[in-house]
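#structure-requests
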Amino acid sequence: MTTPHMTTHFRVIDNSASSPVILHAPHGGRTIPPEHLDAYLISLSELEAEKDAMTDHHTNTLVAAITGASAVINDLSRFAVDVERFPDESEEMNAVGMGVLYTHGSRGQEIRRVATVDEAGLLDYFAAYSRRFTELVDATLARHGRAVIIDVHSYPYDELPYELHGGGPRAPLCVGSDPFHASEAFLHAVAESFAGLESAANTPFAGAYVPLKHYRTDARVSSVMLEIRRDVYLDEATVELDEAGFLGLQQSLQRLVDTLA
């Protein structure tokens, strides 16, 4: 069964006419449409616990609060479909059951069987999301000759079992990038804008989102991933927002957007 209205689960703020900057919040959503719940092997309470462990809490709100940039905000949970994964065998997270369609959870436990998943509906959503993001990048390039993506995430203080590259520093801010899509000047602007946070490069997470059309082929598209350690802005036990910490992040992100624009 294909779900006809899945595209309503993401939002696009198109300011490409005035700004080269595109903010991205891919993992801040918690929604799993009811028609997809039967595929899960775990209880609803266990599924909520997985969302608590792996949702990038409040990043949707953070991105939506920034002015002067375009934005793509995903309200669908990554446990339904992960819009940032590579849709083929090149995706390294396939090794732990966390490719486009997750079969396993944060502790390596099986949570869903692909045989029972409505793959068509979820993959249609993935395709629609990717297509709309690509269109926004193309419109931005046409107007400005460049597009600058800021990919906003969060991660827990303590390492989770699913992580492939754990064991290293877990700084308050992990800055992920690919040399093809991130110049030294771009990374310097990030460091200056978030000067109040200790940062580490590409650890424990690396790289940054770029649409496949432009990935490692179009240097006019720049991208950086901001992985914010969650204790900077919330209580991880309750997922309650620390308003002072959140405001500081908002100010830093706005400063970066203003600098890049």
